[in-house]
Specification:
heterodimer, A: 284 residues, mainly alpha, 10 helices, globular
Chain lengths: 284, 305
Amino acid sequence: MNTRKLSEKLGFAMLAACMLIVTLLLAVILFDIASKGAGRISWGFLSEMPRNGMTEGGILPAIVGTFLVTLITAVLAIPLGMGCAIYLNEYATDNQPTRIIRMAIRNLSGVPSIVYGLFGVVLFVQLIHLGTCVLASGLTLGLMTLPWTITASEEALKTVPNSYREGALALGATKWQAIRTNVLPYAVPGMLTGTILGLARAAGETAPILFTGAAFFLPFLPSSPLDQFMALPYHLYVMSTQHHAITLVRPIAYGTALVLVVLVFAMNLAAIILRYRLRMTRSE
Amino acid sequence: MTQRTEDSSKRTWRPRRKESAIHGLFLLNGVLVVAVLLGIFLLLVVTSIPAFREIGLREFLGNTNWNPTSFVRPSYGILAMLVSTFMVTLGALAIAVPLGIGTAAYLSEVASRRVREIAKPVVEILAGIPSVVIGFLGIVLVGPAIARLFHLPNGLNAINGSILLAIMALPTIVSLTEDALRSVPRSYEEASLALGATRWQTLIRVKIPAASSGTTAACMLGMGRAIGETMTVLMATGCAPAMPTSFLDSVRTMTATIAIELGEVPYNTTHYYALFTVGLVLFIITFIVNMVSDVVLRKYQKVSR
């Protein structure tokens, strides 16, 4: 009896140790970036152009570039992703083609981001002749985000009970009226939560924008969607591996990493708060 | 579906036309999305065809030497980077699978409700860290630590990549394994406890085996993520394009090769097409991994229902 109790204690302690290791990993990552990056953050760092071969000055063009490219991603991925989810969950009958479409979408969410980058080069840069620019990068990231947006939106639609739809249809509403008045109001917050999480991931991605529009260094802000741009993740990559004086610019790299992490977390937090408030209103 | 609702209720012509227009619009949307996504695969295949014609499958898959810019005789063998990719990935799984399953078991079995409320966001935040940031930490934190530990000039090698990829695969493995453990029917647990087993014995002998297909799917999805990850391995593995002999060697994966070379190669050359072929191989591998995990996952959902 005692050895059994002991082995249970030991086993559970082992599991707790696993959890502890994971927590420590996160703590070390966040602490290192926050402690070494915070010293660099100042108003000037956020609002100035890089100077002197990127060894001084700020990261304004990278911040603006990431903002712009994420905006284009959102414009492509939100309507298309939500529309596709509405079709799949509300209109499509559950037959073989629908199941194949669902499976394709699930699998495509696992396609490596660099493969989307290759696709972006052929389709947007070469075939459509956009050249390397913000638009090409945004569209590439948008396509990458689509499967995530669709899956998350469909999950949100599935949580709306069927009785809501049936109630509206029984009162004589058309299909679209039922969806608009009885399904979407309850599903949209959940759909947005998933979409924002996807956009946050897209904002931090580097591989798809490497060859579709991100620039090593630009002394100006992009003025049209057909301009090249600097982006936070690519800037961090450049500052930590490609720069001619890597040790000299390490503080700038840390500062960039901190800004990027804060940006991505702010988006995640927005999504989590949205989900939390949704849960509150549901349970009332 | 719309047909049925329209027939069953008497409605005027106008809303019905509007209804079918809306239906058509969403259908078009769905078709467009699927066409675009399938187009990715087709475009990759089409762009890879010239490379197959000029290089040949045997040289491509059998040669260990990748040197497309050689003036004498360019060679296009992907074997070394294929091995590198799998080496780094398997190293990552060796770390992430036990750690991930342990964490998931802790979250679903041991942790109190309040601990779980705090611990779950840890995993979610970890999933949210951009890969380029993890790669950066590989250079500034993990690399120097490895160099000191093994007395190497620098720590940019396969083991560094494995550690970082493990961090990237962990959130997927933890959250999906936790779901799998949670969906084991309560009656299994109750039966085991009623027979006098401790909670630990129940977990090890009953719940984890019962959740095994869900756990397998979780690990495979984590593996898919690790294989396709670009920035972390590009930054942290040193990127020497040779056949690796140990985990302390600098390696260059398929993703890293594309990332390094595509920016410098002129469009529509053999080298350019060869990089797309590497992308196609990558696509096929991750597709198979995801597909298998998908099938395994569906199977376990059917069983547990």
